[in-house]
Design a protein that fits this description.
By secondary structure, the protein is α+β, with helices and mostly antiparallel strands. It has two domains: about 10-60, no CATH class; about 60-90, no CATH class. The chain is built from four helices and two strands, in the order E-H-H-E-H-H. It has helices at about 20-25, 40-50, 65-70, 75-85, and strands at about 15, 55-60. A two-stranded parallel sheet has the order 1-2. The longest helix has 11 residues, at about 40-50. The N and C termini lie far apart (about 45 Å).
Length: about 90
């Protein structure tokens, strides 16, 4: 889709995940008994990793800026993510 829109993409595309089990499942081409129920879209991602079009890397939960918008956080984590987003509090 991006190439049809004349957008240059550096390959492989890096997908940052916080779930190490998901990363291991994407990198391991062997289907385990526990992964048989996974939907086809996840098998598609595994194929892209195996073909070198997609790379998955661990990205720690503490660095996930989107968590401030999607999760209830402890105050210290909230303040840290807020600071990383560049949001300041005016009194």
């Amino acid at each position: 889709m991006l190439s049809k829109s004349n957008i240059q993409v550096r390959k492989p595309i890096v997908l940052q995940l916080e779930n190490k089990s998901a990363i291991n499942l994407a990198k391991n081409p062997i289907l385990h008994g526990r992964s048989k129920h996974i939907e086809a879209r996840f098998h598609f991602l595994r194929e892209q990793v195996n073909h070198g079009k997609l790379e998955v890397k661990h990205f720690p939960s503490e660095s996930q800026l989107a968590d401030i918008l999607t999760k209830g956080l402890k105050i210290d984590m909230f303040l840290s993510l807020r600071k990383n987003l560049g949001i300041i509090q005016y009194d």
